[in-house]
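Two entries, shown back to back:
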Amino acid sequence: MAQRRTVAAIESEISRVKSDMSKIQDKYDKLAARLKDLQQQKLQIEVESIMAAYAKSGKSYNELMTFLQP
């Protein structure tokens, strides 16, 4: 027959698992913030590229919007 675990052993393991989960949550939060920052950097580069192409095109705002709208 299998030996039963004590409440103290189970509580100790619960504490360890909570601590591990907290560390993983911290790592997730840092990675999520880094992802958001990278996406913002990418968007900024795209905006700059679009604005440069618009300025170089010589087209008016209305012509550009007509082209872009479905």
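entry 2 starts here
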Amino acid sequence: MNAAAQLIPDIKKGLEGVIADSTSVSHVDGEVGRLYYRGYTVESLSRYRFADIAYLIVFGELPDQTQQSQFESFLQQAGAIPEGTAALISQLARTTAHPMEILQGIAPLLTAEQLDKTPGRTAEESEGLVVAARLPAVVGLILATRQGRKFEYSTAPRYGQRFLQMLTGRQSNSAAIDGFEQTQILQLDHSFNASTFTARVVTSTLAPTACALSAALGALYGPLHGRADQAALEMAEEVASPANAQRYVSNCIASKKLVMGMGHREYRVVDPRAKIIKQLAEKAVLAKEHRLLFDTLIEVEKEFVAQTSARTRALRANLEFYKGIVYLSLGIPKDYFTASFAAARVFGWLAHIVEQRKDNRIIRPSAYYTGPAPREA
């Protein structure tokens, strides 16, 4: 190796393996396939309501009965969108913009007309909680406008009940509400994923909380991150039948084509969230057209595991792989999968924003320059 080559630093593309900071919000133990929220395994939290675990993520402990009631009430009251902002969202919904693009653009404006009282411990945290409370109504308003139906803000007492009612325009049964809230719980936080790190980078500049959330929404929209749920379902539609799975997987491996929802950088074994969401999918998928898609996903996963088992580790399904079929069975259109995901992950982003502000240092990594040597113009 020559002297010039020896000077090249060890560059970690994608910051893989780099410990950029500490966090107490969630922990991914990829070696054994565990995910913890504030010390609790996600499996142990599945019996709780979504609002309880959102509270845990933001405030660090599970709520007592009074805190639970107050937080759910706050989300219901704060979730209504101010009239002027609602009119603007309706205008944007009449464009061809993806719902995620609208969410990113509108997020900094969702703090207008905040409530006098919020559970937030600081002004920045209160601002973030208002944005989080209003995202379900924004998603519902966009869809209602595009479907040509009148949007009505739901005052149902439970988060999942309100969200589904605003999104679908109809009442959902308790099984659907429970399944939706369990799905949302699985998406609350996942350590320093791309969108969360984006939120922390923007926060480190001391930008407003809503701007950090807007940036995180932009990162989540990418198909290598949050939009993988929509892409995985569209893949199943393309494959069309379990009988086509073997050929499809073989072609993908031969051409080095990514299949969204398969594999995960953090997990060396099965993503624990994937186990839970697959079980939810088995319960939720009842309609014949959805059953075919579900069976196709199962066969694609089976083939990927079989055809990649000779590698260091077999590629297995992650959370995004089966999540789309659960959302579809609940009446959520494909274009609204990632927006529904965002409405849960926003609580995780906020927890990281609060954490970043407590011991802030602007995030500014170095770069190894590979351009021309110094020269004169």
